[in-house]
Structures are given as structure tokens and as C-alpha cells.
Specification:
- There is one protein chain.
- Helices cover about 75% and strands about 0% of the residues.
- It is mostly helical.
- Helix 1 crosses helix 4, helix 2 crosses helix 3 and helix 4 runs antiparallel to helix 5.
Length: about 120
């Protein structure tokens, strides 16, 4: 029985290590995504998604968002919704705004990839 317990401990330790490594890689990918946007464009996009700002995302920031890419856009949105208190409860409102902004920016920037529905 002792061998089974030792084996179980090793498996759990390996799983925890894998989780920590995955979390670190995810954090690093989020950091790489976030540094691709200027603070002004990040604020403009954030405000339009989460605060439904009366000022829409500028063409300049749309081009920046398109260069950022859909994967980074979605990762950053998901990170905000899943880690910041109070944002998850409004996801049914903010996710469609995020999609709408991506679609607008993809059109403005002439992104060939299919837009979200």
C-alpha cells in the first residue's frame, strides 16, 4: 500500500508542476499579447467593450487590434472576464461587444481571416 501512496504523491506532484508551467506559459502569452497594444488603444478598446463608451474604437486602434490578432484579442478578453471581479456577470453583454469590435476592426484593417459571428 505504501508504494501506491508514493506513486499517488508523485502523480499529484507532476500534475501540479504541469499546471504551474501551463499557468506561467499562459501568463507569458498574455503579456506578449498586451504589449502589442499601446496603452491608449488598450484603454479605447477596453472602454468600448466593458463600458460601452460613446466614442467608438478609432481606425488607428482598429489597425493595432488587427495586428494583435483574433487569438490575442480573445485571450485578453477571456482573462479580464475570468480574473477581474464583477466582469463575469456581464459576459453575456460584453462578449457580443467584443465580437462586434473585432468584426469592425477586421473590416477597417482589411483582415482576410473570417470575422466572428
Amino acid at each position: 500500500m505504501a508504494k501506491l501512496n508514493n506513486f499517488s504523491v508523485v502523480v499529484v506532484a507532476a500534475m501540479l508542476l504541469a499546471f504551474v508551467v501551463a499557468a506561467e506559459q499562459d501568463f507569458n502569452s498574455l503579456m506578449l499579447c498586451s504589449i502589442k497594444l499601446s496603452p491608449d488603444c488598450g484603454q479605447e478598446i477596453f472602454s468600448d467593450i466593458f463600458w460601452q463608451n460613446s466614442k467608438t474604437v478609432s481606425d488607428y486602434c482598429c489597425h493595432s487590434l488587427a495586428r494583435l490578432g483574433l487569438t490575442c484579442h480573445n485571450r485578453l478578453f477571456d482573462n479580464i472576464v475570468n480574473t477581474q471581479h464583477g466582469y463575469k456577470s456581464n459576459e453575456t453583454i460584453t462578449r457580443p461587444r467584443s465580437v462586434q469590435i473585432w468584426n469592425k476592426c477586421a473590416l477597417v484593417a482589411g483582415v482576410v481571416a473570417p470575422a466572428l459571428k
